[in-house]
Amino acid sequence: MTKMIKPNSAAMLKRAHQNMPMGVADSYRYWGEDNTVFLSSMQGCTITDCDEQTFTDFRLAYGPIILGYRDSRVDSAVINAITNIGTISGFSTGLDSEVVELVKSMCPNIEKMRFSNSGTEAVIGAVRTARGYTKRNKIVVVEGGFHGLHDEVMWKSDVDNWDVANEKAPAIVSFGAGIPANTREHQVSVPLNDFAALEAVFARHGNDIAAILIEPIMGNCGSIASTQEYMQQLRDTCDANGSLLILDEVKTGFRVAKGGAQELYGIYADLTTYAKAIGNGYPVAAFGGKAAVMDTISFAKDGVTHGGTYTANMVALSAAKATLTVLNETDAYQTINRVGQEIQQVLSKVFTKHGIEHCFAGPDSMFGVHFGSSVPQNYRDWKQTDSELYTQFAMNLIDNGLMLEPDSREPWFICEAHQTMDLNWLEQVADRSMSDAINA
Ligand SMILES: Cc1ncc(COP(=O)(O)O)c(C=O)c1O
Fold first, then answer.
1. Which of 94, 116, 316, 362 is most exposed by smallest CB count within 10 Å?
2. 428 CA to middle of ligand 1, Å?
3. What is the pTM of this model?
4. Beta strands in 151-294 (DSSP E)
5. 163 Cα–ligand 1 center, Å
6. Nearest CA to ligand 1 atom 5
7. Helix axes 314-329 and 94-106, enclosed angle (nearest 10)
8. Mean pLDDT for the chain overall
């Protein structure tokens, strides 16, 4: 069991309250006065907190860690770049094209690309490019999707406060104060895998829809995935209406396959966003797609603006080059997928032993766990799963040294370093945690 009293964490939080709102650098890191985590180190698939407790980590920083923490293949490339080349200069280097060419060799959907520093910025760039290209405004998004922290996408379907028996759609609410109401003006939201809803939206707004923006596998909604048919409908609908398909692969890109979710579906976007796994934890992101669309970025009178002081800095690009080289040239994906399957088998055995109906959503490298009889098809279905039992189970796992987000909307992330984990330990910990959750 982890410690009930964590004196060093408590002291750090107390100090941090004097320095940052909520005592944290990102609001989602605040887990309450007793449970907010302060780390002292990370290695492989483990994290160690400042009270010397080590956890096997399935949260992996919300997905970026694909090889493992402090992977020497990536770290040494970054150290080499900053020692021998530099960090930023406001000019280009040959590394820009080297990384794009690597991405192109892995992702047939990319003809041209631009870099950014976060998934949020990549989405901003892709949406602006789509609007510039189509000369239209509206963006269709999917309930339960997440696309970053800029105002326009900081609106969500309030499924938490939605009554399943209610036939009306969940209310759309902002993520909080400071988001002007008019930033929603150009956004239309539909439930995932609902063919009729998509048709209705295009019938109403088709002429002004610049793009559909969707996570093909919702990494922020328990890995609930588009069906093959729905992905095809998205592609066909965009083609028929002169709209662009933007696939937000910030979580799935370079994680679920070399070519991301698009490789799994065999269906390709006009524009794609990447971040997270592209740099194994270093801050690098990108968006790209068809050359004709990307070439809208220009100084022409009707061209799209893109750039930024830190864009394509050496830390980011050397990390991306090293990470992608490992992913492209080794059997890392085989390892990650095998370990992901083994972990699901262990969990399934434990859930079955305790008589818990369960299912897994999404790919083995990023799977959602749902307590219910069938895999949810969209965010509204998720509401019917027993997410409270999941949260209790997850809190118990944390108490037993396994770190994850205690919310079934966040998937279990697997990295190559998880191959060193003891599956017997996992079974014991999961068994104890479920037993305690049921008897809570
Ligand atoms: C699908 C998706 N898009 C965009 C973002 C925003 O990325 P970032 O946090 O790097 O700004 C996230 C973050 O989790 C995401 O999951």
1. 94
2. 33
3. 0.98
4. 155-157, 172-174, 187-190, 209-214, 217-218, 224-225, 244-248, 271-274, 285-289
5. 28
6. 148
7. 30
8. 97
Q: Which of 116, 251, 254 to mutate to test the pocket of ligand 1 (most atoms within 8 A of CB)?
A: 251
* pLDDT over 70 percentage in the chain: 100
Residue in 26, 147, 247, 256 to alter for ligand 1 test, most ligand atoms within 8 A of Cβ: 147
Instruction: Give the tens place of pLDDT for each residue, 144-167.
Output: 999 999 999 999 999 999 998 877
Please report where in the chains the tokens 């992608």 appear, as a residue: 324
SS3 395: helix
Dist CA 231 CA 365 (whole Å): 20
Distance (Å) of CA 408 to CA 142, 224, 251: 18, 11, 16
Q: How far is the CA of 76 from the centre of ligand 1 (A)?
A: 26
Q: pLDDT, tens digit, for every residue of 268-323?
A: 999 999 999 999 999 999 999 999 999 999 999 999 999 999 999 999 999 999 99
435 alpha carbon – ligand 1 mean position (Å): 34
Q: Which amino acid is at 236?
A: D
Distance 85 CA to ligand 1 centre (A): 29
Q: DSSP secondary-structure letter at 405? A: -
For residue 151, what is the DSSP state?
A: G
Pocket test for ligand 1, best of 26, 250, 405 (most atoms within 8 A of CB): 250
pLDDT tens digits along 393-436: 999 999 999 999 999 999 999 999 999 999 999 999 999 999 99
Which helix (H) or strand (E) covers residue 122, if one does? helix 119-134
